[in-house]
Amino acid sequence: MEISPFQRLVSNASDVFLGSDRDQAAMNAANNTGDHPDVVARRVSPPTWQSLQKFDNDTIAQPFSPFGSVPNPEYIWDQPTSDGQTVSFAIASEPFIVSAGLTASFSVSLGAFADNAMEAKIELFEEIGGAFIKVYPQPEGLDEFLLIAGEPNNPAVGLTQ
User: Fold this and answer.
1) Phi, psi of 36 (to 5 degrees)
2) What is the pTM of this model?
């Protein structure tokens, strides 16, 4: 089976959307509406936060790098910050078409770098009447599956790593 590269999504202040909760953030991203997060400067002295950068050879000049033009991720948050603050973010891929009566197979990979309070979810949306809505039921394997940070050998709920 041939794998065709489609899109690499990275955290940034222009393609990521905020929401009052995970569902609202996902709806905002799917429909390209709502507010965007703020870029947060990475603390470099002392080096508290790791640098998020692509490999040096992941550039547009390399024929084997289909996502070479994608910039490095940015640290993002909803400013101003406050103790106990919870923020929901979402980013959507470009739409793709699967003709009626046909099926499509695709693979989604998620690489995340965040503190241990992160929850992540991958959802499928469908365009109906000019707007994107969440597909019900979600395809097998997505449904109500959450990726929740925790100890690798003792996850609270969901799956770690």
Assistant:
1) -105, 155
2) 0.80
DSSP string, the chain: ------------TTT-EEESSHHHHHHHHHHT-S--PEE-PPP-SS--S------TT-STT-TT-TTTTSPPP--EE-SSP-TT---EEE--PPP----TT--------------TT-EE----EEEETTEEEE-SSPPTTTTT--EE--BTTB-SSSB--
Provide φ and ψ at 40, rounded to 5°.
-110, 125
pLDDT category of residue 161 using cuts at 50, 70 and 90: very low
pLDDT in tens, 103-131: 888 778 887 777 666 788 889 999 999 99
Extents of the domains making up the chain: 10-161
| Of residues 73, 106, 90, 100, the one with CA closest to residue 6 | 106
Q: How many residues are listed for the chain in this entry?
A: 161
